[in-house]
Design goal:
Structural class: mainly alpha
Order of helices and strands: HHHHHHHHHHHH
Helix content: 55-70%
Radius of gyration: 55 Å
Distance between the termini: 163 Å
CATH class of the largest domain: Mainly Alpha
InterPro entries: CFAP99
Largest sheet: none
Length: 283
């Protein structure tokens, strides 16, 4: 059975109140809570988990607002209502874009209007929000985070939230404006036009078959005769070069022969005879 807004909010408050960080982890507490209360709808479970983990993660941000409320405007508020104010503080800071103003209004009117009005009136008062609340947040987080994540979304919804506060104040003071009587708009009926007949889908044209390709000529893979001739000429030139090399090797040491010719011997003999004649002093 689907839960209404009051029941969902009560579960959010209860799971926050019953959590003890020194006894059990966040995951175990969530699992135990859903098993104990037999909550099986995935969308409701997801919403409760987001609210619970968000209240735990941003507890210092939320405590700044809630503690200030108890000190300033909530002196007669019950301590047991603290989780209610914590959940509403989290929803306004981090979930308004997701919920939308219509769903948020339903959560508000599912509770005691006097209690919720007093807290919202305190929190949305710019004399509190833009002064000491902002300064306290800046002591916890960087100024850019406070301005971008905390303040900007809330200030963007501030006109709509102020309208809700005005409506709540009027209801508390019994100044609810009577609803305007609305006349029923003329219903437009479509013309009774004959529906066109469905067009026949033409049969696809047959795909033409391609002519068989010609086989590759055999001479493409045969070695050209010019290459055979070149190889034959190379072989002949190689043999001639080898013969020239052998002949050159055989003749290269002919100049080193030490045997003297007959003419050389005759010249040397004449030279030695002349030298001997010069040394013969007795003649």
């Amino acid at each position: 059975m689907s839960l209404n807004h009051n029941q969902i909010l009560q579960h959010c408050m209860c799971i926050v109140d019953s959590y003890d960080s020194g006894m059990v982890s966040v995951e175990e507490h969530i699992e135990q809570y859903f098993n104990n209360y037999q909550i099986y709808e995935e969308d409701i479970k997801a919403f409760i988990i987001e609210v619970f983990t968000g209240c735990i993660r941003y507890i210092s941000v939320i405590d700044t607002v809630v503690n200030g409320f108890y000190i300033k405007d909530g002196k007669i508020a019950l301590k047991s209502e603290r989780s209610l104010y914590s959940v509403f503080c989290y929803l306004m800071l981090f979930r308004l874009d997701e919920l939308g103003i219509s769903q948020f209004r339903r959560f508000i009117y599912s509770q005691d209007i006097n209690r919720v009005f007093k807290f919202l009136n305190f929190f949305l008062d710019e004399r509190n929000l833009l002064t000491w609340i902002k300064d306290s947040w800046c002591k916890l987080y960087e100024h850019s985070f406070v301005q971008t994540i905390l303040l900007s979304p809330l200030l963007r919804w501030h006109p709509e939230l102020t309208d809700i506060l005005t409506q709540m104040r009027d209801r508390i003071e019994n100044k609810v404006k009577p609803k305007k009587s609305t006349t029923k708009n003329t219903e437009i009926k479509p013309f009774n036009i004959t529906q066109p007949r469905a067009r026949m889908v033409p049969l696809p044209e047959p795909i033409p078959k391609l002519a068989p390709h010609k086989p590759v000529p055999k001479h493409i893979y045969r070695t050209p005769t010019e290459i055979d001739r070149l190889n034959e000429a190379k072989e002949i030139n190689r043999r001639i070069a080898e013969e020239h090399l052998i002949e050159a090797s055989r003749k290269q040491f002919a100049c080193a022969n030490t045997e003297k010719s007959e003419k050389t011997k005759e010249i040397m003999s004449n030279i030695m005879a002349k030298e001997d004649a010069k040394l013969d002093f007795d003649k």
